[in-house]
Amino acid sequence: MSTSSAVDKSSLRWRLGPLWSLVSLLLIVTAATFITASFGKSLQVQVQYALVSLVIVVALQIFIGTSGVLSFGHVAFVAMGAWTVGLLTIDPVLKENLLPDLFPFLMHAQAPWILAVFIGAVIGGLLALIVAPVLMRLNGLQAGIATFALLGVVNLVLTYWSSIGPRSGQSMVGIPEVLDYKLALVFALSAIIFAWLFQRTRPSRLLRAAREDGIAAAASGINIVTQRVIVFAVSGAVAGVAGGLFALTNRVVQSSQLYIDLTFLTLAMLVLGGTLSLSGAVVGTLVFSAIDVFLTNLQSGIDIGSVSLSIPQGTRPIILGLILVLMLIFRATGLTGGREFVWPFRTVRPLPGNPPTNE
Amino acid sequence: MNQLIQSLVDAISAGAVLGLAALAIGLVFGVIRLANFATGEIITAAAYSLILTWDLGWYISIPISIIVAVLISLLMELAVFSRMRNHGPATLLIASFGLSFLLQRVYELIFGNNVRTAPIASGLAQSVDIGGIRVQMLSVTTIVLAAVLLIALQLFLTKTSLGLQLKAAAADFKTARLVGIPAGRVIGLSFALSGILAAAVAFVLTVQSGAVGPSFGVRITILALVGAVIGGIDKISGSLAGGFLVGFATSMLASWLPQEMTNFKDAFVFVLVIAVLLFKPSGLLIKGRGVVRT
User: Fold this and answer.
1) CB distance from A137 to chain B under 8 Å?
2) Residues linked to residue A309 through DSSP beta bridges, in sequence order
3) I need a surface site. Which of A238, B2, B109, B279 has the fewest CB within 10 A?
């Protein structure tokens, strides 16, 4: 490919192109948030959940999109973040009653919510960093199974170890109501900017090269495992932030909510949009959440003029599942096909390391 | 000593069930590279059939459950997986994940969130005395059932033309097609056999619990999938052995871990799995590093 002459001809577009891919995403998310939120209180809550999902999906994309390796384990880091925020923000008096078996230092630990979210990010990232040297040696199906095993271990420990959380089967309640949809939007936009900047760093570029051709990348001196470890830890930290936001949004934290179903739903969003691009993560989450919100409201009935439309309870997740399965059958590369938005929506300039678009 | 033998019998029986479930996954994987997470929902469907029709008598209920399992398994292949032939194992795994989620919600809609109960083969829930050692009747039955199924499967795979075709396809699908083995037929056959095995697993599990809910098959499928992968999902015997190992280990941990640790038994198994994958990524029964066909 001789892109160099094209670069010379339009170096301005070459510079603006990638930046536009970021700006357009930020604009779309902001617009979608405020438009939906203007329909009332209950939609604001649903928007907030969607924004939390967005942060999880961005975290997933940072790793899966960059490395091409499947991870079923990211919800483990989300759970760590949620646990951290829960433990640090619940009132100590309440904690003594609800979580009587806690370690003493956890019983007294207390932090402002925003600090708690960042500690959650550190803990999520640390866990990812610790397990990564082991998990990152695996590929394909084996990587999927091993990351799933990690999720299983973390979920069981959080469910049953009452020294770090509620007794089995119970949940953490009493998380303060501090986060609204506008603050959640700030976090979601920050996550997108962070992911976009991270795409331009050395580890991310090297790992994209390795994703496209592992043998050539290794022959060029790239230590694939090391790069994967770095990217996995970074995406684990973002997932930790998402967990904190989940705790502050849901205000009840229970290990059963942070397990297979959440893993499936967030993966579905990423696959729907297209795993290979950040735009895919954002578009997938927005489209999936929009359908979800629409169906949720349809389940409780929507009035259009004099006609009231509704669908039976329980059909919402069925339709969502159908959408994912159909999407995988007919367009496995997702809605965006792995491309980023490019100014002025004409030329597609994949990031170095992205697959050629005219395969 | 008695306790040791009892726990061994229980562990062998638990291993047998998981071995069958892992085999149900491995048979299909060998042919089309699909690690079918939705196998759990085939098991659930068979379990619902058993529980809801048990009043009609076992000689009606058991055949119904087998037919339902085979039909659902074939339907999955026809409706979803046959349209995804060109995708890699990771995409297929996500698709089966989606299908599993979808079917669980369908069961929720049809049968409700609460468990349905029926005393399935309550005679098997008793213990018997064999030479002074008390063992669960169900454990013995399970071991016998698994042995019979495995012998039948082995005879089918080695003595019949259709079985040999399936075996060849599972070993190397491309070459098998080149020598004229009809692809559609072997794929359908693998899904049908997978359904029969799932029905057997459902029978044992419903006798054990007497109750079924929408996510009935999820836990055993996770463990079976994990078992199949560590045993070597590329080989039929690998899946079986891996599934057996995981079931055996889980049951032994449940018997011998201190009381306050038993809740974590699956966690130990998962750690074991990660360790095995690290040293033998292609599976315990695959010689050398093995070629991970993707």
Assistant:
1) yes
2) A302
3) B279
